[in-house]
Each structure stands twice: as structure tokens, then as C-alpha cells.
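Researcher: If only I could read C-alpha cells as easily as an amino acid sequence. Walk me, if you will, through where the backbone shape changes along the chain. I have put the entry right below:
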Amino acid sequence: MLKFVKGNLENIDGVEIYPIISLLIFFIFFVALFWWVFTAKKDHIKEVSNIPLDNSNEDTL
């Protein structure tokens, strides 16, 4: 199965850039996520973590 994919990809010019681009997107996303987690305000984290426990916004059926 891999030889069919590899054979098709060898015919595309510039295909070697796609794995690099996908790695960069993956890396940048997780760096941004870690940055947001470490710089998020503690009050916001506490408020969001209590959302599942908040019963005041329940809809009655």
C-alpha cells in the first residue's frame, strides 16, 4: 500500500515541503496553546472550570 502512495507522491513537484509545513503548523499550534495556558488569568480558569457545576443556568423541560 505504501509503495502506491510513494509512487504517486514522487511525481508531484515540490511535495517534500508538505511534511515540513504540517510539522510547523502542528508545532505552532501547540506552542500557542501552551502560551495561552500559562498566561491565562486564574479567575478565568476558575470560572470556566466551575461551569459544569453551575446549576443556575439549567433549562427546565
